[in-house]
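Dear Dr. H.,

I hope your travels went smoothly. While you were away I took the liberty of generating a structure for the chain from your last submission, since the lab meeting agenda had it listed for discussion. I wanted you to have the full record in hand beforehand rather than looking at slides cold. The sequence, exactly as received, is reproduced here:
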Amino acid sequence: MKLEIKRNILLNPGPATTSDAVKRALVVPDICPREKEFGDLLAGICTDLPAIVHGDSEYLSVLFTASGTGGLEAAVTSAIPKNGKLMVIENGAYGKRIQNIAQTYKIPTTSYSLEYGSYPDLSEVERMLKQDPEISHLAVVHHETTTGMLNPVGEICQLAHRYNVEVIIDAMSSFAGIPINIRDWNAEYLISSSNKCIQGMPGLVFVIFRKDLLAGLKENQRSFYFDMFTQFTGFHKTGQMPYTPPVQIVYSLRKAIDEYFSETEIGRWDRYRTNWETLYSGLLKLGFKFLLPLEQQSKILLAVLDPVDSKFSFQEMHDYLYQRGFTIYPGKGASKKTFRLAIIGDLYQEDIENFLVTLKEYIDLNDLKISD
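The corresponding predicted structure, in token form, is as follows:
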């Protein structure tokens, strides 16, 4: 009997709506994760992840059982040497999270802090790098989902490398969505997870890193569980993850990767852009305004300014939409009050159009004034 699964439209920035095939991939015969068959499955995934960002043979990947934050912790604690210093570009909550991780481990840190929603000034980035030769690594969020901003990672990598600084990229919500060529950036580290634009289930995180950096990671260990060198070399020695992996999540990630390659990089990006353009134009027609100017938008997520009407309640709007199969997301510390709508996952133009119809119903029902 075919498994019938209710389809919800998740407009939050992950976990994302998944295909029925990815959901059904969770239902597999029980297997011990120490079996070679399962090890081969993991090895194939580890090979394919760098290929998604055109890393080819120059990059490796290492998997951890964790949420996305675990991958950031693995990269920060493994990449930076004991005498190193981290510079964080912080123009959203997720840049701040990287800073918090480093400070928890007492890694010397400096921050280029901006109001959430502000675009990085590259001349200021260079000034800070030039002024502080102790900086060994720079961390930046590619797509900052606090605001929907796409940070200028390519230009930041060029600046960092000019001062012999390695770059750690949080690509949590851009990997497998926005086309990325990690070799063009020559980025040292890139982190993402199984439940964002790759369209799998939560539970796995991965760090993609330049192959020539592996040997040097051995001396940098700060964490027992999140040590990249131990995790990577242990798997490649035994064909097993050192600690119990989420077996069913691995199978669903395998299916999600297969679906990505079937859709192709450009096919997925075109679908996402169509979703975003449909959402953007539809919200404009309803009278909404946005936190960011068009040129800074990621075309993955919109931070939408709250309606000006004093009757507006985000929670009431959320509940109305949720009861009708649509999940929306509150704002997160931006310079103005917002709510957020993402278009990632197994979503299509029709889904966005149906959401806009339902949103208009809510606005009309409550006679809301959207903007001045």
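Two observations you may find useful: The chain has a mean pLDDT of 96. The chain has two domains: 27-262, 265-366.

With kind regards,
E. W.
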